[in-house]
């Protein structure tokens, strides 16, 4: 077994889509990013790469490269699964976001991640928290996510 952790944060900006775990959430702001800015998938990617000691997302998908501009994070995640030959045991994640409340979308997000990674639904956990008004997440300026993954060799 090997374990990995990952985290990510993006600024929230008007005129951008809010994409979390590949699901677009209706809101007037979204992640500012070179790619689609999917903070949850980015954290999961870093956790998987970390489990295999294979550097980080920025090394594999540079944020100044033309090929990664506007890139769909689902494609990045699939590429990382192939690159690592990853056998996922389970993944636990947390998304930190003041607004909107994510509860109505959690099941959709889990189902989408289960589909992308071809793992059973009960192997992927997605939790959502607010920051109680504190810091950049609490002030609605940013969204962040953490992920932990257990993989088997
Ligand atoms: Mg990111």
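Q: What amino acid sequence fits the structure above?
A:
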């Amino acid at each position: 077994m090997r374990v990995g952790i990952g985290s990510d944060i993006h600024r929230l900006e008007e005129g951008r889509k809010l994409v979390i775990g590949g699901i677009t959430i209706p809101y007037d702001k979204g992640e500012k990013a070179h790619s689609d800015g999917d903070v949850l998938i980015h954290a999961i990617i870093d956790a998987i790469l970390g489990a295999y000691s294979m550097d980080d997302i920025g090394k594999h998908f540079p944020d100044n490269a033309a090929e990664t501009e506007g890139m769909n994070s689902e494609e990045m995640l699939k590429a990382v699964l192939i690159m690592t030959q990853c056998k996922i045991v389970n993944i636990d994640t947390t998304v930190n976001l003041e607004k909107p409340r994510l509860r109505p979308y959690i099941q959709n997000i889990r189902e989408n991640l289960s589909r992308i990674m071809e793992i059973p639904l009960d192997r992927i956990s997605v939790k959502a928290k607010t920051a109680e008004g504190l810091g950049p997440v609490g002030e609605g300026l940013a969204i962040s996510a953490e992920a932990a993954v257990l993989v088997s060799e």
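Q: And what stands out in the fold?
A: Helices lie at 39-51, 57-60, 73-84, 103-117, 135-138.
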